[in-house]
Amino acid sequence: MFFCAECGAETAKWTGKCPYCGAWDSLKETTKVTGKRKTKTLTPGQASQPEQLNKVGSGKQTRISSGFAEFDGTLGGGIVPGMVILIGGEPGIGKSTLMLQISDMVAKDGHKVLYVSGEESNEQIKLRSDRLKCDSQSLYLFCETGFDEIERAITNFEPDVVVIDSIQSIYLSSRDSSPGSISQLRECTSIFTRIAKQTNIPIFLIGHVTKDGIVAGPKIIEHMVDTVLYFEGESQNQFKILRATKNRFGSTNEIGIFEMKSTGLQEVKNPSQLFLSREDNNIGSAVGCVLEGSRAFLVEVQALVSPANYGISQRVALGFDHRKLAVLLAVIEKNLSLNLRNNDVFINLAGGMKVLEPALDLAIIAAIISSFKERALPTNTLLLGEVGLNGEIRPVSQVDKRLKEAQKLGFDNIIISARTKNISKKINVSKIKHIKQLFPILFSK
After folding, report:
1. What angle do CA 144, 149, 153 make, to 5 degrees?
2. What is the gyration radius of the CA atoms in the chain, in angstroms?
3. ∠ CA 404-400-393, rounded to 5°
4. How deeply is 25 buried, as exposed, middle or buried, from its count of CB atoms within 10 A (0-12, 13-18, 19+)?
5. In whole angstroms, what is the distance from residue 281 CA to residue 264 CA?
6. Predicted structure pTM score
7. C-alpha 433: how far from chain center
8. Whole-angstrom Cα distance, residue 338 to residue 330?
9. Exposure on the CB side of residue 343, measured as CA atoms within 13 A
10. In the chain, what are the domain boundaries?
11. DSSP code of 106?
């Protein structure tokens, strides 16, 4: 059989293009187990019966805390017994470090944790545990790649939490393919999922990612598990973001922010301070607020407008869509009569933040104007608003949550859309309808 690594579809022959999802060069060869299936005759009393949905019990389960509030929030409140979690990330991003720290904190909380490693020896993990100061007596290490031995250890040891590092290194002896192949990944993940559901033991699967940034192997692995977490961040950047792309027990809009230090990963309590520099007379800098899930972050937008000395002017956006930047520049030129055609425009979001929502439109325009006029914005000014093609300012969602974050960090001069409703009177707010009203507010002195 041939298996599509993108959508998980099966086909009997190889083609250059998947007939189901249209992905090119995604069909991988695998084996198909054939044979007669053993059937078991059930008596009428043994057969399961349909049950009314409104009479099914909710089955309240106590979540296990990982010791990291950021990690628990990404999962939706903690580790659910019997859940299967796939954690992906680039090599060296900190997946094994994070899971070893979580295993140690869960073990110190009175739970028995089994850490299975198929890529490192006992001595290597011991060296890392000494650096991370992991010394719990309830944390057990098992270095093995054979699935049968791992399943036997889980059955005999009866742990409360299992960590598999990594799923690509585990193999079934009943399959002829090598570890990491499609058939091995599919079968191992399927059996691990069955074990988790039958024994009510949460299992963490660490997975490698490809050069495209997706978990290596077929997409069906993500369909099998309950939760998929991606550990993101530049290898040179000390700040890492944990993002949920699939979660059956919580929201997929939550993120967790960690900082890599010599003693391991530490959660960031106040993420807004990472993306701000509270300096006076900072020309070309404006502050906006974005939402990641249910959390609000203040982000500093940096703009640089300089004459183009190399012919065609450049438009560069780091952390922001360059096409949206072209739209905002056109709005500025038409409505504010500023000639930016002969200038290079560079936009950067401080701290390596990547933003897609339109709430930063007004802050980006203010930063561009500040750099072009070479005049700094007033201190403690926050700009919130989406800018339309005609220059009108539109309100943003969940403005109360954004304003509370701004108040906590001392921003007392807020500029928002005039159509924003239900704002507390304790906050100093300037409401504007059009970007033409920015000049008298920002540069009145």
Report:
1. 95
2. 27
3. 115
4. exposed
5. 37
6. 0.74
7. 35
8. 10
9. 18
10. 1-32, 63-267, 273-442
11. H
Do 215 and 221 touch, CB atoms closer than 8 A?
yes
Largest CA distance in the chain: 87
Q: Strands 113-117 and 393-394: what pairing?
A: unpaired
Task: Tell me how many degrees the CA angle 120-125-129 measures, rounded to the nearest 5.
Answer: 160
Please give the class, per CATH, of domain 273-442.
Answer: alpha beta
Tell me if 63-267 shares its fold with 273-442.
no
Nearest residue to 383 via CA among 329, 334, 431: 431
In a 3-state reduction of DSSP, which class is residue 126?
helix
In CATH, 63-267 is 3.40.50.300: yes
Residue 270, both tokens: 């106040």
Distance between CA 355 and CA 296 in Å, rounded?
12
CA 82 to chain centre: 22
The pairing of strands 84-89 and 203-208 is parallel
Quick one: tokens of 166? 């990594």
Contact call for residues 227 and 85 (beta carbons, < 8 A) = yes
Question: Could you report the per-residue pLDDT of 392-438, keeping only the tens digit for each?
Answer: 999 998 888 898 888 888 888 899 999 988 776 667 788 999 999 98
Tally of CB atoms within 10 A around 76: 18
Q: How many residues does the chain have?
A: 445
- Burial degree of 70 (CB within 10 A; 0-12, 13-18, 19+): buried
Tokens of 25: 């060069």
pLDDT digits (tens, 9 = 90+) for 171-195: 998 887 788 888 888 889 999 999 9
What are the CA-CA distances from residue 292 to residues 255, 258, 387, 423 (Å)?
A: 7, 15, 20, 21
CA gap 398, 407 in Å, rounded: 15
d(CA 179, CA 169) in angstroms, rounded, equals: 6
Amino acid at 288: G
Q: What residues are paired with 392 via a beta bridge?
A: 434
* pLDDT single digits (tens) 353-379: 788 889 999 999 999 999 999 999 988
Measured distance CA(6)–CA(222) in Å, rounded: 11
| Encoded tokens for 209 | 């990612």
What dihedral do alpha carbons 233, 234, 238, 239 form, nearest 10°? -20
Amino acid at site 311? G
